[in-house]
Write a structure and sequence with these properties.
two-stranded antiparallel ribbon, Arp2/3 complex 21 kDa subunit ARPC3, 72% helix, 201 residues, 8 helices
């Protein structure tokens, strides 16, 4: 899912930064000192999940966990995912610095937005239905990120369209895997730590 430097057109890069900078500014303001431990755990999970690559044909797919981050952290997930993306670009060569804004717009923004919607939805429904909302958030966020990645690649140059399609279809298994992980996580958290989901015990 990470886009590397030198792939995208300058217009897409500028558009990515235009979306990422204000979102990140708002996210930083919403950070809370008492949640530093939670931020660290989720950032570590995002970092680890994104570094485990599974070959799918000529590509390699990986977990994103951006929907889970958004579900647990709300808008703060933008900052946490950005930190993970920056560390991966600096130390592992995944993604790049010039395209960091685009990667934030593709991964962090959908995670926060869909996570917030799912978090609000979870508060209003019964315990039996909550894991299904979690599944929708986890899988749905990967789907949206895949669509945004497809748009970023295919609008850069028409020659990138076949690669964009390949990457999109390659992420379909990840959609279902993350949906299953999110289902289990919400099912577990609502029993042991419902406050992480914004649910009063």
């Amino acid at each position: 899912m990470h886009i590397s430097d030198g792939v995208l057109s300058p217009y897409i890069i500028i558009a990515g930064w235009a979306a990422a900078v204000p979102a990140l500014a708002v996210s930083v303001k919403k950070l809370k000192a008492e949640k530093v431990g939670v931020y660290g755990v989720i950032a570590a999970a995002f970092f680890a999940g994104s570094t485990i690559h599974i070959p799918v044909g000529p590509l390699s797919m990986h977990l994103m966990l951006n929907g889970i981050a958004g579900l647990l952290l709300g808008w703060s997930a933008v900052t946490v995912i950005t930190a993970g993306l920056l560390l991966q670009a600096l130390f592992l060569g995944f993604g790049g610095l010039t395209v960091l804004g685009v990667n934030i717009a593709i991964m962090a923004l959908p995670g926060a937005i869909i996570g917030i919607l799912g978090r609000n939805w979870i508060k209003r429904i019964s315990a039996k239905k909550r894991p299904w909302i979690g599944s929708f958030v986890g899988g749905g966020t990967v789907f949206i990120s895949s669509v945004l990645l497809f748009i970023a690649l295919s609008t850069t140059h028409t020659a990138m369209a076949p690669l964009a399609k390949l990457v999109f279809f390659g992420n379909i298994p990840v959609i279902f895997i993350e949906g299953a992980i999110s289902y289990w996580l919400v099912h577990f958290l609502q029993k042991v730590k419902p406050s992480l989901l914004g649910i009063l015990p």
